[in-house]
Amino acid sequence: MKKVFLYIMIVGSVLSLNSCLEEISSEASLDASSELAEDDVNKLLVGLYRKVRHPNSNGYFAVMATEIMADNYKPVKFQWFQVQNIYEHNVPSNDLLLRNLYVDFYAGIDRANTILKSPSANKDQKGKAKFYRAYTYLRLFDMYERVPIIDENYNRQPIAPSSKEDVLNFIIEDLKYGKENMVEFDGKNVGLSSKVPTKEAAAALLARVYRLKGDLAAAANEAEYVIGTNKFSIAQNPKERDSEVITMLKGNKAEEAGSWGWIMSYEARTWNCFAAADDLLNLISDNDTRRALFDFDKKDERNGYVFSNKYKTQDNSDLLVVRIPEMYLISAEAGNTNRLRELQNIRNSTLSLEDERRLEMSFEWTRWQDLKLSKKQDYVLPYPQQAVDSNPLLK
After folding, report:
1. pTM of the predicted model, to two decimals?
2. What is the tens place of the pLDDT at every residue in 374-383?
3. The SusD-like N-terminal domain covers which part of the protein (predicted)?
Protein backbone atom coordinates (compact mmCIF):
# COMPACT_ATOMS: atom_id res chain seq x y z
CA MET A 1 0.00 0.00 0.00
CA LYS A 2 1.18 3.49 -0.72
CA LYS A 3 1.74 5.46 2.46
CA VAL A 4 2.82 8.66 0.72
CA PHE A 5 0.31 11.42 0.25
CA LEU A 6 0.07 12.16 -3.46
CA TYR A 7 0.04 15.87 -4.12
CA ILE A 8 -1.94 15.72 -7.30
CA MET A 9 -2.57 18.85 -9.31
CA ILE A 10 -6.20 18.56 -10.24
CA VAL A 11 -6.86 20.65 -13.30
CA GLY A 12 -10.44 21.77 -13.78
CA SER A 13 -13.46 20.73 -11.81
CA VAL A 14 -16.88 19.36 -12.50
CA LEU A 15 -16.72 21.26 -15.80
CA SER A 16 -13.69 19.30 -17.03
CA LEU A 17 -14.33 15.74 -15.89
CA ASN A 18 -12.42 12.66 -16.97
CA SER A 19 -13.94 10.56 -19.71
CA CYS A 20 -15.06 7.11 -18.71
CA LEU A 21 -13.11 5.75 -21.67
CA GLU A 22 -9.76 6.15 -19.89
CA GLU A 23 -10.14 3.35 -17.36
CA ILE A 24 -9.19 0.30 -19.41
CA SER A 25 -6.68 0.36 -22.25
CA SER A 26 -8.95 -1.73 -24.44
CA GLU A 27 -11.56 1.02 -24.24
CA ALA A 28 -9.39 3.70 -25.78
CA SER A 29 -11.01 3.40 -29.20
CA LEU A 30 -14.61 3.14 -27.99
CA ASP A 31 -17.05 5.90 -28.87
CA ALA A 32 -20.10 5.69 -26.63
CA SER A 33 -22.14 7.86 -29.02
CA SER A 34 -21.89 5.21 -31.75
CA GLU A 35 -23.34 1.71 -31.92
CA LEU A 36 -21.42 -0.56 -29.57
CA ALA A 37 -21.54 -4.26 -28.95
CA GLU A 38 -23.00 -5.40 -25.62
CA ASP A 39 -19.52 -6.42 -24.47
CA ASP A 40 -18.21 -2.92 -25.25
CA VAL A 41 -20.84 -1.33 -23.03
CA ASN A 42 -19.92 -3.86 -20.35
CA LYS A 43 -16.32 -2.64 -20.60
CA LEU A 44 -17.56 0.87 -19.90
CA LEU A 45 -19.45 -0.51 -16.90
CA VAL A 46 -16.23 -2.11 -15.63
CA GLY A 47 -14.55 1.28 -15.83
CA LEU A 48 -17.44 2.83 -13.91
CA TYR A 49 -17.33 0.04 -11.32
CA ARG A 50 -13.64 0.60 -10.70
CA LYS A 51 -14.11 4.35 -10.32
CA VAL A 52 -16.97 3.95 -7.84
CA ARG A 53 -15.08 1.34 -5.83
CA HIS A 54 -11.86 3.36 -5.64
CA PRO A 55 -12.41 6.99 -6.72
CA ASN A 56 -8.76 8.07 -6.52
CA SER A 57 -5.31 7.19 -5.22
CA ASN A 58 -6.59 7.88 -1.69
CA GLY A 59 -9.84 6.06 -2.31
CA TYR A 60 -9.92 4.57 1.16
CA PHE A 61 -10.58 8.02 2.64
CA ALA A 62 -13.18 8.73 -0.03
CA VAL A 63 -14.99 5.69 1.37
CA MET A 64 -14.27 6.43 5.04
CA ALA A 65 -14.78 10.21 5.17
CA THR A 66 -18.23 10.29 6.74
CA GLU A 67 -17.40 7.47 9.14
CA ILE A 68 -14.37 9.48 10.26
CA MET A 69 -16.67 12.46 10.86
CA ALA A 70 -19.05 10.31 12.90
CA ASP A 71 -18.48 8.79 16.36
CA ASN A 72 -17.66 5.11 15.85
CA TYR A 73 -13.91 5.64 15.54
CA LYS A 74 -11.28 6.18 18.22
CA PRO A 75 -8.19 7.61 16.52
CA VAL A 76 -4.88 5.92 17.26
CA LYS A 77 -2.69 8.13 15.10
CA PHE A 78 -3.10 10.84 12.47
CA GLN A 79 -0.27 10.70 9.97
CA TRP A 80 -1.98 13.31 7.80
CA PHE A 81 -3.40 16.50 9.24
CA GLN A 82 -6.02 16.39 6.48
CA VAL A 83 -7.51 13.26 8.04
CA GLN A 84 -7.48 14.88 11.47
CA ASN A 85 -9.31 17.88 10.00
CA ILE A 86 -12.09 15.57 8.83
CA TYR A 87 -12.32 13.94 12.25
CA GLU A 88 -12.45 17.33 13.99
CA HIS A 89 -14.96 18.84 11.52
CA ASN A 90 -12.49 21.55 10.62
CA VAL A 91 -11.81 21.11 6.91
CA PRO A 92 -10.68 24.26 5.04
CA SER A 93 -11.95 24.84 1.52
CA ASN A 94 -8.43 24.64 0.08
CA ASP A 95 -7.74 21.20 1.61
CA LEU A 96 -6.11 18.82 -0.88
CA LEU A 97 -7.97 15.73 0.28
CA LEU A 98 -11.25 17.66 0.11
CA ARG A 99 -10.69 18.28 -3.60
CA ASN A 100 -10.39 14.54 -4.15
CA LEU A 101 -13.63 13.99 -2.23
CA TYR A 102 -15.50 16.11 -4.77
CA VAL A 103 -13.96 16.08 -8.24
CA ASP A 104 -13.28 12.34 -8.34
CA PHE A 105 -16.85 11.48 -7.40
CA TYR A 106 -18.06 13.57 -10.31
CA ALA A 107 -15.62 11.74 -12.56
CA GLY A 108 -17.53 8.56 -11.69
CA ILE A 109 -20.84 10.27 -12.40
CA ASP A 110 -19.45 11.36 -15.77
CA ARG A 111 -18.68 7.74 -16.60
CA ALA A 112 -22.21 6.73 -15.71
CA ASN A 113 -23.60 9.51 -17.90
CA THR A 114 -21.49 8.36 -20.85
CA ILE A 115 -23.06 4.91 -20.63
CA LEU A 116 -26.55 6.37 -20.33
CA LYS A 117 -25.99 8.36 -23.53
CA SER A 118 -24.95 5.26 -25.45
CA PRO A 119 -27.66 4.15 -27.93
CA SER A 120 -26.34 0.60 -27.57
CA ALA A 121 -26.86 0.25 -23.82
CA ASN A 122 -29.72 -2.05 -22.89
CA LYS A 123 -32.06 -1.45 -19.96
CA ASP A 124 -30.12 -3.65 -17.55
CA GLN A 125 -26.88 -1.85 -18.41
CA LYS A 126 -28.52 1.54 -18.01
CA GLY A 127 -29.99 0.36 -14.72
CA LYS A 128 -26.51 -0.52 -13.46
CA ALA A 129 -25.17 2.86 -14.60
CA LYS A 130 -28.01 4.62 -12.79
CA PHE A 131 -27.45 2.51 -9.69
CA TYR A 132 -23.80 3.54 -9.49
CA ARG A 133 -24.70 7.14 -10.26
CA ALA A 134 -27.25 7.10 -7.46
CA TYR A 135 -24.78 5.50 -5.06
CA THR A 136 -22.16 8.13 -5.91
CA TYR A 137 -24.63 10.98 -5.43
CA LEU A 138 -25.56 9.48 -2.08
CA ARG A 139 -21.91 9.71 -1.02
CA LEU A 140 -21.78 13.34 -2.18
CA PHE A 141 -25.02 14.02 -0.30
CA ASP A 142 -23.54 12.51 2.86
CA MET A 143 -20.60 14.92 2.68
CA TYR A 144 -22.01 18.10 1.11
CA GLU A 145 -25.82 17.69 1.13
CA ARG A 146 -26.48 20.30 -1.59
CA VAL A 147 -24.59 19.44 -4.78
CA PRO A 148 -25.06 20.12 -8.51
CA ILE A 149 -27.09 17.45 -10.27
CA ILE A 150 -25.33 16.48 -13.47
CA ASP A 151 -27.14 13.98 -15.65
CA GLU A 152 -26.53 12.62 -19.14
CA ASN A 153 -27.94 15.82 -20.67
CA TYR A 154 -25.55 18.18 -18.88
CA ASN A 155 -24.20 20.88 -21.22
CA ARG A 156 -20.95 21.60 -19.33
CA GLN A 157 -22.06 25.05 -18.24
CA PRO A 158 -21.83 26.46 -14.69
CA ILE A 159 -24.49 24.86 -12.52
CA ALA A 160 -25.84 25.69 -9.07
CA PRO A 161 -26.22 23.15 -6.27
CA SER A 162 -29.63 21.56 -5.99
CA SER A 163 -31.60 21.43 -2.77
CA LYS A 164 -31.19 18.48 -0.43
CA GLU A 165 -34.68 17.30 -1.35
CA ASP A 166 -33.95 17.49 -5.08
CA VAL A 167 -30.72 15.55 -4.68
CA LEU A 168 -32.52 12.77 -2.81
CA ASN A 169 -35.34 12.74 -5.37
CA PHE A 170 -32.82 12.41 -8.18
CA ILE A 171 -31.21 9.46 -6.40
CA ILE A 172 -34.63 7.89 -5.87
CA GLU A 173 -35.56 8.16 -9.55
CA ASP A 174 -32.30 6.50 -10.59
CA LEU A 175 -32.85 3.67 -8.12
CA LYS A 176 -36.47 3.21 -9.18
CA TYR A 177 -35.28 2.79 -12.77
CA GLY A 178 -32.70 0.28 -11.61
CA LYS A 179 -35.25 -1.69 -9.61
CA GLU A 180 -37.54 -1.87 -12.61
CA ASN A 181 -34.95 -2.74 -15.24
CA MET A 182 -32.01 -4.62 -13.69
CA VAL A 183 -31.84 -8.39 -13.42
CA GLU A 184 -32.88 -10.08 -10.19
CA PHE A 185 -30.44 -11.36 -7.60
CA ASP A 186 -29.65 -15.00 -8.40
CA GLY A 187 -29.90 -16.90 -5.15
CA LYS A 188 -28.18 -19.88 -6.77
CA ASN A 189 -25.12 -17.80 -7.61
CA VAL A 190 -24.68 -15.60 -4.55
CA GLY A 191 -20.97 -15.11 -5.14
CA LEU A 192 -21.58 -13.36 -8.45
CA SER A 193 -24.92 -11.65 -7.76
CA SER A 194 -23.66 -9.91 -4.61
CA LYS A 195 -20.95 -8.19 -6.65
CA VAL A 196 -23.23 -6.53 -9.22
CA PRO A 197 -26.27 -4.27 -8.89
CA THR A 198 -29.62 -6.06 -9.01
CA LYS A 199 -33.30 -5.24 -8.54
CA GLU A 200 -32.96 -6.13 -4.88
CA ALA A 201 -29.89 -3.91 -4.45
CA ALA A 202 -31.76 -0.95 -5.91
CA ALA A 203 -34.72 -1.60 -3.60
CA ALA A 204 -32.40 -1.83 -0.58
CA LEU A 205 -30.77 1.50 -1.36
CA LEU A 206 -34.22 2.97 -1.99
CA ALA A 207 -35.17 1.95 1.54
CA ARG A 208 -32.11 3.78 2.89
CA VAL A 209 -32.77 6.93 0.86
CA TYR A 210 -36.49 7.08 1.66
CA ARG A 211 -35.50 6.90 5.32
CA LEU A 212 -33.13 9.84 4.85
CA LYS A 213 -35.96 11.73 3.19
CA GLY A 214 -38.22 11.09 6.18
CA ASP A 215 -40.64 8.77 4.37
CA LEU A 216 -40.52 5.75 6.68
CA ALA A 217 -43.59 4.14 5.11
CA ALA A 218 -41.95 4.05 1.69
CA ALA A 219 -38.67 2.95 3.26
CA ALA A 220 -40.40 0.05 5.02
CA ASN A 221 -42.15 -1.00 1.81
CA GLU A 222 -38.82 -1.34 0.03
CA ALA A 223 -37.23 -3.07 3.01
CA GLU A 224 -40.06 -5.58 3.24
CA TYR A 225 -39.86 -6.19 -0.51
CA VAL A 226 -36.21 -7.20 -0.12
CA ILE A 227 -36.89 -9.32 2.96
CA GLY A 228 -39.84 -10.94 1.20
CA THR A 229 -37.70 -12.25 -1.64
CA ASN A 230 -36.29 -14.80 0.85
CA LYS A 231 -32.93 -14.54 -0.92
CA PHE A 232 -31.09 -13.11 2.08
CA SER A 233 -30.85 -14.03 5.75
CA ILE A 234 -29.15 -12.75 8.88
CA ALA A 235 -26.16 -14.98 9.55
CA GLN A 236 -25.82 -16.79 12.85
CA ASN A 237 -22.10 -15.98 12.66
CA PRO A 238 -21.67 -12.34 11.54
CA LYS A 239 -18.17 -13.13 10.24
CA GLU A 240 -19.70 -15.52 7.70
CA ARG A 241 -22.04 -13.03 6.10
CA ASP A 242 -22.47 -14.26 2.52
CA SER A 243 -26.18 -14.74 3.14
CA GLU A 244 -26.51 -11.14 4.34
CA VAL A 245 -24.86 -9.24 1.50
CA ILE A 246 -27.32 -7.71 -0.98
CA THR A 247 -24.57 -5.93 -2.87
CA MET A 248 -20.95 -4.94 -2.37
CA LEU A 249 -17.94 -3.72 -4.33
CA LYS A 250 -15.23 -6.34 -4.68
CA GLY A 251 -11.81 -5.41 -3.35
CA ASN A 252 -8.71 -5.81 -5.53
CA LYS A 253 -5.28 -6.24 -3.96
CA ALA A 254 -3.36 -5.45 -7.16
CA GLU A 255 -5.09 -2.07 -7.34
CA GLU A 256 -5.00 -1.54 -3.56
CA ALA A 257 -8.75 -1.10 -3.78
CA GLY A 258 -9.98 -2.00 -0.32
CA SER A 259 -7.58 -0.56 2.27
CA TRP A 260 -10.10 0.62 4.87
CA GLY A 261 -9.81 -2.69 6.73
CA TRP A 262 -6.08 -2.10 7.11
CA ILE A 263 -6.58 1.46 8.37
CA MET A 264 -9.05 0.09 10.94
CA SER A 265 -6.54 -2.48 12.20
CA TYR A 266 -3.62 -2.61 14.64
CA GLU A 267 -1.28 -3.04 11.67
CA ALA A 268 -1.80 0.63 10.73
CA ARG A 269 -0.92 1.99 14.18
CA THR A 270 2.10 3.96 12.88
CA TRP A 271 0.08 5.59 10.11
CA ASN A 272 -3.48 6.95 9.96
CA CYS A 273 -5.20 4.44 12.20
CA PHE A 274 -8.63 4.02 13.83
CA ALA A 275 -9.82 1.72 16.60
CA ALA A 276 -13.42 1.32 17.74
CA ALA A 277 -14.89 4.04 19.96
CA ASP A 278 -15.36 3.18 23.64
CA ASP A 279 -19.08 3.95 23.71
CA LEU A 280 -19.62 1.70 20.70
CA LEU A 281 -17.79 -1.12 22.43
CA ASN A 282 -19.91 -0.62 25.54
CA LEU A 283 -22.95 -1.73 23.54
CA ILE A 284 -21.54 -5.23 23.03
CA SER A 285 -22.54 -7.76 25.66
CA ASP A 286 -20.58 -10.94 26.31
CA ASN A 287 -23.23 -13.03 24.53
CA ASP A 288 -23.74 -10.78 21.50
CA THR A 289 -22.65 -12.69 18.39
CA ARG A 290 -21.20 -9.46 16.95
CA ARG A 291 -18.53 -9.56 19.65
CA ALA A 292 -16.62 -11.77 17.20
CA LEU A 293 -16.19 -8.71 14.96
CA PHE A 294 -13.94 -7.00 17.54
CA ASP A 295 -10.57 -8.13 18.95
CA PHE A 296 -11.37 -7.72 22.65
CA ASP A 297 -8.92 -10.49 23.54
CA LYS A 298 -5.98 -8.36 22.37
CA LYS A 299 -6.98 -5.16 24.15
CA ASP A 300 -4.33 -5.35 26.89
CA GLU A 301 -1.44 -5.88 24.51
CA ARG A 302 -2.65 -3.03 22.28
CA ASN A 303 -2.61 -0.19 24.81
CA GLY A 304 -6.32 -0.55 25.50
CA TYR A 305 -7.40 -0.19 21.87
CA VAL A 306 -9.98 -2.56 20.44
CA PHE A 307 -10.11 -2.88 16.67
CA SER A 308 -12.88 -4.07 14.38
CA ASN A 309 -12.21 -7.02 12.13
CA LYS A 310 -15.35 -6.59 10.05
CA TYR A 311 -13.05 -6.10 7.05
CA LYS A 312 -9.91 -7.88 5.93
CA THR A 313 -6.66 -6.13 6.80
CA GLN A 314 -5.14 -6.63 3.35
CA ASP A 315 -5.58 -4.04 0.61
CA ASN A 316 -8.43 -5.97 -1.01
CA SER A 317 -11.24 -5.75 1.50
CA ASP A 318 -14.69 -5.78 -0.09
CA LEU A 319 -16.77 -2.65 0.30
CA LEU A 320 -20.12 -3.44 1.86
CA VAL A 321 -22.86 -1.40 0.19
CA VAL A 322 -25.98 -2.86 1.80
CA ARG A 323 -26.85 -5.94 3.89
CA ILE A 324 -30.16 -7.51 4.88
CA PRO A 325 -29.94 -6.57 8.62
CA GLU A 326 -30.36 -2.93 7.61
CA MET A 327 -33.70 -3.83 6.01
CA TYR A 328 -34.88 -5.38 9.29
CA LEU A 329 -33.84 -2.25 11.18
CA ILE A 330 -35.57 0.09 8.73
CA SER A 331 -38.75 -1.94 8.85
CA ALA A 332 -38.61 -1.96 12.66
CA GLU A 333 -38.18 1.82 12.73
CA ALA A 334 -41.35 2.12 10.68
CA GLY A 335 -43.26 0.18 13.35
CA ASN A 336 -42.75 -3.47 12.43
CA THR A 337 -41.35 -4.36 15.85
CA ASN A 338 -41.26 -8.08 15.07
CA ARG A 339 -38.37 -7.40 12.69
CA LEU A 340 -36.28 -6.01 15.55
CA ARG A 341 -37.03 -9.10 17.64
CA GLU A 342 -36.02 -11.37 14.77
CA LEU A 343 -32.67 -9.64 14.43
CA GLN A 344 -32.07 -9.59 18.18
CA ASN A 345 -32.87 -13.29 18.54
CA ILE A 346 -30.10 -14.09 16.08
CA ARG A 347 -27.63 -11.57 17.50
CA ASN A 348 -28.39 -12.40 21.18
CA SER A 349 -29.00 -8.73 21.90
CA THR A 350 -31.49 -6.58 23.80
CA LEU A 351 -30.39 -3.08 22.78
CA SER A 352 -32.69 -0.21 21.92
CA LEU A 353 -33.45 0.20 18.22
CA GLU A 354 -31.10 3.18 17.99
CA ASP A 355 -28.22 1.34 19.65
CA GLU A 356 -28.96 -1.83 17.69
CA ARG A 357 -28.64 0.13 14.48
CA ARG A 358 -25.40 1.77 15.59
CA LEU A 359 -23.76 -1.54 16.43
CA GLU A 360 -25.11 -3.54 13.51
CA MET A 361 -24.23 -0.89 10.92
CA SER A 362 -20.94 0.21 12.45
CA PHE A 363 -18.21 0.95 9.89
CA GLU A 364 -20.63 0.68 6.99
CA TRP A 365 -20.73 4.40 6.25
CA THR A 366 -24.26 5.10 7.54
CA ARG A 367 -23.61 6.42 11.06
CA TRP A 368 -23.05 10.04 9.95
CA GLN A 369 -26.54 10.32 8.51
CA ASP A 370 -28.00 8.70 11.63
CA LEU A 371 -26.38 11.43 13.72
CA LYS A 372 -27.84 14.06 11.41
CA LEU A 373 -31.31 12.55 11.47
CA SER A 374 -31.22 12.59 15.27
CA LYS A 375 -30.02 16.23 15.25
CA LYS A 376 -26.76 15.28 16.97
CA GLN A 377 -24.67 16.65 14.10
CA ASP A 378 -25.08 19.38 11.51
CA TYR A 379 -21.58 19.74 10.07
CA VAL A 380 -21.25 19.89 6.28
CA LEU A 381 -18.00 19.77 4.35
CA PRO A 382 -17.23 22.99 2.44
CA TYR A 383 -17.08 22.94 -1.33
CA PRO A 384 -13.46 22.76 -2.51
CA GLN A 385 -12.17 26.22 -3.36
CA GLN A 386 -10.95 25.08 -6.78
CA ALA A 387 -14.42 23.84 -7.66
CA VAL A 388 -15.93 27.15 -6.52
CA ASP A 389 -13.41 29.06 -8.61
CA SER A 390 -14.31 26.99 -11.67
CA ASN A 391 -18.06 27.09 -11.08
CA PRO A 392 -19.18 30.54 -9.83
CA LEU A 393 -22.67 29.19 -9.14
CA LEU A 394 -21.31 26.77 -6.54
CA LYS A 395 -22.13 28.77 -3.43
Report:
1. 0.91
2. 999 999 999 9
3. 38-210
